[in-house]
Amino acid sequence: MIGFNVAPFVGRELEYMKNAVDRHKICGDGEYTGKCKKWMEERTGTKTALLTTSCTHALEMAALLCDIGPGDEVIMPSYTFVSTANAFVLRGAKVVFVDIRPDTMNIDEKLIEEAITEKTKAIVPVHYAGVACEMDEIMEIARLHNLYVVEDAAQGVMSTYKGRALGTIGEFGCFSFHETKNFSMGEGGALLIREQQFTERAEILREKGTNRSKFYRGEVDKYSWCDMGSSYLPSDLNAAYLWAQLEEGDKITADRMHTWKQYDEALRPLERFEVPFIPEGCEHNAHMYYIKTRDLEERTALIAYLMENGIKAVFHYIPLHSSQAGRRYGKFCGEDIYTTRESERLVRLPLYYQIGEENVGYVIGKVKKFYENR
């Protein structure tokens, strides 16, 4: 069976974890957390990067830093994971969904302004498949209406928009290091902060509402409770696991890109389905390769056929606005022209570090065979 995903492993993860144990420092903000933080700040150019226990928690921290509260509204696509919405719902906000672009599966930037009301506090673009949203236009809308922008860049580590790293363009950016992502620590994430003014409070929120970070830097002689907060620090064991992969970030990305291009060169010419669209100025990270079938019936048949032939291919999000919680905590602004339709057509093909050309060739062959028989 060719699985859909295998978490990356480069070989030094256990060595680094043992080193953390030997140093008797396995709680948060140890040596390896510091290495990961420095890597993210240097590679992305963000002012501050804080490693978190998940992208979900990074989003929750961003919501707190935006002072989201009851009565506020936050604009986002419905085609995303539940964490994108939950982070703001937990603060009492109403989620306002807008339709997506059918070419990138990202929020349609041209529909955002009509969703803005006097209650709107933030826009949350989601960079689907590591392909950037149209950030220039989104940032201009946010500037005109004095709104925060929180980038859900869970899938976007090492992707860029016009030369700028995803997650660094809005006030806040959120990365994921879940086992399904390009780089993994099992569960984990990071909050990227563009402006220094938010850094001190972010550190306090992340450290259970205390100024413990300042204490460890020697800036205060004792730490105390300063603000609301929670425990958003991952263990340094997790950070040690991640550090092994960040060290090999370029190698992992090149390997995934090779697979992505192998799929694309073989499948794009078939014209029996749609393949990913990469807008000009966007550099993606080969997070996923998907095809879009004619309709739901064809997708169901394709997934079943591939499974019968030992290939695990999967669909993705069920639009949030169609769910029970989505109807309770959110509303859809305008017409759902593409969100549901496109979500019912999309199939993700296996793509992971060191999947191997032979396996990719086998998947390609079976996709072609399926369409030859239709």
What does this structure look like?
With 374 residues, this protein is α/β, with parallel strands linked by helices. The model has no long low-confidence stretch (mean pLDDT 97). It starts with 12 loop residues before the first helix and ends with a helix. Strands 1-9-8-5-4-2-3-12 form an 8-stranded mixed β-sheet, sandwiched between helices. Strands 7-6-10 form a 3-stranded antiparallel β-sheet, with no helix packed on it. Strands 11-13 form a two-stranded antiparallel sheet. 37% of the residues lie in helices and 14% in strands. The chain has helices at residues 13-22, 31-44, 55-65, 82-89, 135-145, 199-206, 212-216, 236-247, 249-267, 296-308, 324-329, 339-343, 357-372; strands spanning 48-52, 73-77, 94-98, 120-123, 148-152, 160-161, 164-165, 172-176, 189-193, 282-283, 289-292, 330-332, 346-349. It has 13 helices and 13 strands. A hairpin with a 2-residue loop joins β6 (160-161) and β7. The chain is globular and about 75 Å long. It folds into 2 domains: 13-247, Type I PLP-dependent aspartate aminotransferase-like (Major domain) (Aspartate Aminotransferase, domain 2, 3-Layer(aba) Sandwich); 249-372, Aspartate Aminotransferase, domain 1, CATH 3.90.1150.10. α3 runs parallel beside α4 and α3 (55-65) crosses α6 (199-206).
